[in-house]
Amino acid sequence: MIYIGNHLSSSDGFLAMGKHASELGADTFAFFTRNPRGGKAKDIDPADAAALMAYMEEHHFGPLVAHAPYTMNLCSDKADIRKFAFDMLADDLKRMEYVPGNYYNFHPGSHVGQGTETGIGFIAEALNGAMFPEMQTTVLLEMMAGKGSEIGSRFEEIRAIIDKVELKEKIGVCIDTCHLWDGGHDIGGHLDDVLAEFDAVIDLDRLKAVHLNDSMNPQAAHKDRHQKLGEGMIGAGVLKAVVTHPLLQGKPFILETPNEDEGYKKEIALVRAWMCTSSHGM
Fold it and tell me: pTM here?
């Protein structure tokens, strides 16, 4: 089995997000820790956070996949932007302790011409400064499409960051089907090989979550434009193979497709139908 959900707005509070997810047929969800463009985070109501944790247990939810703001560039070429990003990261990791045992996902960042090695060093330095031994959150590095000077489209880049992180037991990876496809990984023709390479370079035990998206672009376009499931260039057959792959079972799958609630409800039902069909065929 997998857990399937989508991005929800955190403006109404934690418990409201959990109930909203259930209404869509989901048993996990993602939320931005603050405005996706950055800025001050909304104060957390501890009672609301506790109510969500109880709701998740009662309704058998899988882990949540919180998402850092898109503006959080830990490896910018400007010191003030790196400081802004670090402050957000450190604050978010403290706030995640109100909903312990879940995931905090972020885009590694863009080195802006400094070079990948320098960028990786800045990312690891920030993580080592913000993570703390008693934290109950696992931080996820998201695989990227490789547009511009983005770090994280290659497995080796993700591994290089992990190698420099001190609290290795608290670091994992989130793959994104659109990002893998746009980044040049042939999940269409050689999904088993892609996962085997991930395992060889990073270790599949570190793969904690999946963003499930189709792509508007051909493979290796390095553009990162998401599409609804089955309506893009990856296609329904490949996405079904991802969802039903034995090595990816038990993980949260998060939809980031261009949809409103009704569209997400249909896609969640579609993914569950894929799982059911696959199970009957075994």
Answer: 0.95
